[in-house]
Amino acid sequence: MVFTVSLFMVIQYFVPLDSWAWMYQYLIDWTIIIGVFALLLGIWSLLRVNWGKISRRSENWGYAVITLVGLFVMLIFGFFPGGGNLNNYVYEHFFFYILVPIQATMFSLLAFFIASAAFRAFRARSVLATLLLIAGLVIMIRFVPMGPLSEPISDLASWILKVPNLAAKRAIIIGIGLGAVATALKIMLGIERAYLGRD
Amino acid sequence: MNIFDRMVALDRRWVFLFLFVVVALAYFFRSQFSVGVVTTGEVESIYNFIENAQPGEKILVSFDYDPSSLAELHPMSRAIMLHCFRKGVKVVTVTLSQYGAGMVEEITREVSAEASELYGREIVYGEDYCFIGYRPYPAFVILGMGENFRVFFPRDYYDTPLDEIPIMHRVRNYDDLKGVIAITSGTTSDMWIIYGNARYNMPLSLGVTGVMATDYYPYLGNALFGLIGGWKGAAEYEKLVKQEADANEGMPAQVVAHLTIVLFIVIGNLGYLMTERKKKITV
C-alpha cells in the first residue's frame, strides 16, 4: 500500500490530468483526517502522562497540574460562542496577556544565551575558526552605523551571505535532498520500516 | 590568575548583566541616536514588487509566526501591509501557525485603522483585505490553496463564506494572485518553497527572523524574489515606505546588543591568545 500510494504521488506530479488532480486531492483529504485523529491521540497522551505524574506525585508534579489546567481552561473557553475567533473576552485575554508574554520572554532570553555562547565559543583556535570569527563579526557589525564605512561593510556582509554562505548552503541542501530521496525510496521499497514501530 | 586568565574565564552572569544594562539604556535613550539603515537588494525587490503592482491586484500574506517572534516580525508585517494599502493592492491574509490567528486579527485591525488615517480613505474588510483564518498541517494547506482556496477555507475567519467576500471573487488559487509573501519564524518557510513555489511556481518572498535569514539566501533569485531578515530587514522596509516605526526605533538596542557581543568576543579572544602565548613561552 505504501509503495502504491507513494508511487502515485510521485507520478501525479508529472501528470497534469483532472482525474489525477482529483485523486491527489482525495489523498490530501485523507491526510487531514488522519491528522485529526493524531491530534486526539496527542491530547489523550498528554492527559495520560500528566495524570500519571500527578497521581504518583512524581518530581515537579505541580507543572503537570498547570499543564492540565491550561489545557482545559483554553478548551472550555475556546468552545464558548465566538471563542474560535478570539471574540471571547476571556480567551482573548488569556492569549494576549498570558501566552504572548510567556513566549516573548522565552525568545528574549535567547539574546543572552547567544551573547554568552559567542563569548565562549568564538575563539581563533585555528585558521578555519578565525575565518568563521571574522565572517561572524562582519555580519554583526553591518548593523552598526560607522559613517563612511557603513556601506562597504554592508556590501562585504552581503557578499559573505550571497557567495560563500550561498555556496555552502546549496551544497548542504543538495546533500539533504539526495538523502531525503534515498530515505523515501527505502520507505517505498519496504527497506525502511521504522514508521511501523519496528526496525 | 592574571587579567588574561580572568578574561577567558569570565563568568557568564557578567555577560548577561552587561548585555541587559546596555540594551535597556539603548532602549530608553533610543530617541537620542538614530541608526543609518542601508537598504539591500533583497528587501528592495519586495518593495518594488508591491510598488509596481496595479491597484486592485491581490497578494497573499501568510503570517506564520508565534508570539515568540512577534517583536521581530510584526514590524515587517505592518510595513508591508501599509505599503499594500497605500498602493491599493488587496491583501488576502492567512496564518499557518497555531498561535497566529490572534496576532493576525490584531495586526490587520490595527494596520487597516492606521492606513485609513494615513491615506485618507477607509480601508474596508472584505474589499481591501480579508483574513481567511488558520488551518493545521502547513504543507497540506499550502498544497490545497494551490488547487483551490475553498478546499481548506470554505469560510473566512469570521465565518463568512469566501464567495461572499468581494476580494475573494475570481480568486481560485495562486494563479489569481500577484504573489505570496510569507512571514515566518519556522519551517513553514521551507514548505512555502517546496510545496508552494516549486509546485505552483507562484512568485514568493519571505520575511524571516534574523537568525533564519542566512538559510534562505540560496533561494534568492530563483525560488524567492525577495527576503526580509529580522529587525534590520524590517527597518529597511520601513525606510523604503517612509513609515519608520518599531523596527527603526528598535535598531539602537539591536546595534548595542551586537556591539556588546563583538566586545565580548574580542575580550575572549584577547584573553585566549595571550594565555596561549604565555603557555608557549613557559614550555
Q: What does this molecule look like?
A:
The complex is a heterodimer of chains A (199) and B (283). Chain A has helices at 2-12, 18-56, 61-78, 89-121, 127-141, 150-162, 164-188. Chain A is mostly helical. Chain A has a domain at 1-79. Chain A is extended, with a radius of gyration of 26 Å. Chain B is of the alpha/beta class and 283 residues long. Chain B folds into two domains: 3-31 and 253-282; 35-244, Rossmann fold. Chain B contains eleven helices and six strands. In chain B, strands 3-2-1-4-5-6 form a six-stranded parallel β-sheet, sandwiched between helices. In chain B, helix 2 (12-28) runs antiparallel to helix 11, helix 4 (70-87) packs parallel to helix 10 and helix 10 (230-240) runs antiparallel to helix 11. Chain B is elongated and about 80 Å long. The model of chain B has no long low-confidence stretch (mean pLDDT 90). At the A-B interface, helix 2, helix 4, helix 5, helix 6 and helix 7 of A face helix 2, helix 5, helix 6, helix 9 and helix 11 of B.
Using brief descriptors, characterize the structure shown.
heterodimer; A: 199 residues; mainly alpha; 7 helices; 77% helix; extended; B: 283 residues; alpha/beta; Rossmann fold; 2 domains; 6-stranded parallel beta sheet; 6 strands; elongated
